[in-house]
Here is the input.
Amino acid sequence: MTTIQPGLNEVLQRTFSFPKRHFLSAADLNEVEVANLLDLADGFVSLNRQTSKKLDLLKGRTLMNLFFENSTRTQSSFELAGKRLGADVVNMSPRSSSISKGETLIDTAVTLNAMQPDLLVIRHSSSGAAALLSQKVSCSVINAGDGQHEHPTQALLDALSMRRAFGRIAGLKVAICGDVMHSRVARSNIAMLQMLGAEVRLVGPPTLIPPQADRWNVAIHHDLRQGIAGCDVVMMLRLQLERMDGVMAPSQREYFRFFGLDREKLAHAAPHVRVMHPGPMNRGVEIDSDVADDLSVSLIQDQVEMGVAARMAVLTSLAARLENDR
Amino acid sequence: MNPGPHSNRPTAFTNVRLVDPASGYDGPGGLIVTEGVIADVVKGGGLGSLSADIEVIDGAGGVLLPGLVDIRVKSGEPGAETKETLKSAALAAAAGGVTSIVLQPDTDPVIDEPSVVDFILRRARDIELVKVHVAGAATKGGRGERMAEIGLMAEAGCLYICDADRPIVDSKVFRRVLSYAKAFGVLVAHRPADPWLSLGAAASEGEFASRMGLPGVPAIAEKIMLERDLALVELTGARLLVDQLTTAAALESLARGVDKGLPIVATTSINHLSFNEIDIGDYRTFCKVDPPLRSEDDRQAVIEAVASGLIQVVVSSHAPAPAEDKRLPYDEAAPGAVGLQTLLPALLTFHHEGRIPLIDLMRTVTCAPADLMGLTCGRIARGSSADLVLCDIDAPLIIDADKLISKSKNSPFDGRRLQGKVLRTMVDGRTVFSA
Here is the structure.
């Protein structure tokens, strides 16, 4: 018999019923749902630190990881989350299997649906792919990143990391810095953090800030020092190296000079500032190792740990609504 | 900035006609220079009694102007020192009354990263003549494909960015350059020319080019690109310096943009104010410039635009090309004309013709370009650096290209009768030229 931390027990015993079949976007959620998911995830964090991490909440269920884009951390995070909850986990990587040989996404969905998965985790390079898939399958779909649109479980784990570090999210000043334009992490975070009452700012060169993002009720800064001034959290985003060679930014060295986070720039933030990064990091490009590796400042390792717990919370919540024997 | 040594002895200019477009003053006066700075300016009267240790320069009624600021100058250095060196360009500038120049980035190597900016600024500082500034390339190699290190070059001291003669064809690239530069407060200059209509052209399209059998570019090639540029300025809100407008059609677009309140400033070159396509005559390659000389109607429209203030800055567009690049069939010859030494007398033509008041004319080469570049020079005011030109604006002269100081002698003004002789040029209180 698995021992469950009291906190988790309480949460599980709550009559929290997650009302949605899919987990596609942070913007779909409301404050209560997010707060419940965070409470649940908090309980799973304690569980994950025990020797025996296994539960049977998803026993008999099948979780299918469908990653059209390569990912190490997100895919293994979902895999671990599923396994710790007792589900059977299958990793499908369309690149190395036959399912993507000229097949459309919908054909793939229909094929996979016939295998009767209960939970389908999808990452795809096109915005809207997860939503499209969700319309064609009878199981629950979890968006693990669709193009430049959303990555809602990342926002949930980021919120969890922040809440644990500060005890709250409401009122926090959060600067999201770097390649906001191409970042699904940023879009999910903006939606979720604003819902939870944080003040969000976007910082980056204008070439990397989405057009008309000022209408998202965020302050926009093109100067990192000004942008992070007084911030409680500085969230750095990854900038793909090929976008830096004169395309969206002139060069790596110019990017680091003006938009890379180092000690000197970080000193403009609040004294108790915590630094986050969704990974994988480009050290010396968007973030100095000196900052990234300082555990008194950096939440980057925590984020990875919180990822498993947050995903367990999402899977548990969705599974509770899955229909039983058909 | 080129801080150089200056004469320790104070200097006074007396008996001069001060022409200072920045303050709008044109009248008798005098001034005193101490430690490289204008220490005192007296407008209307004389300087009164001066102490004996002051060196007095009697202007004999000549005109004392702020030193000219020329924001579009090519030097051959680095990479093509046979055309022109920084020193020969600086000497030519000093002789022409030009005290600040901004070099174009299309050197070899291209000025597209901070170390090249730094290299040229240091070389120029050592020459200790006129003040030499640098424009950085907007894109790597000036190829129009990838953004150059705009922020780092601005930190190294470049005054604006442009790809010199080459238009940035890819609108996506140009849009990014504009928005990126805006965030760094860097001014972007762009040459409006449709690249496909311009391809292979040696002259302006029209009856003359047709008769001479020269491949021509229609005047609207300028308007087409300018319209795109203005639309991108509207989208990004970035400041744009429209480089060398030369056609009536494009001026209409410019006027519309200005009326709309777009943050734009336009230049034209002294060549397009002074010559038209017919000056090509019997295939005179010294008249081959880029953009090509236009029709007389276009030239008149450009003069009007300078008179009305629609065009705010006049440049020499100094582009040295040695004889071996010019003594070629017309369509094979290199474009470009030297102009540092002839800019002032050529511009004074419009004063002598009674078309543009002297003070308005001089504004286009003094405080207007200085303000645009964020330089404090270009004005006669207490506390300003003593960059000054004393000239006899009426003295006649015949331009002899062979006697020009530039290493290259490609002047379309060769043989022209002009008025306006530089008597003395001073930079930070140091005399760098005297006739």
Observations:
- Chain B touches chain A at residues 139-140, 145-152, 176, 179-180, 182-183, 236 (CB under 8 Å).
- The two ends of chain B are 26 Å apart (CA to CA).
- The mean pLDDT of chain B is 95.
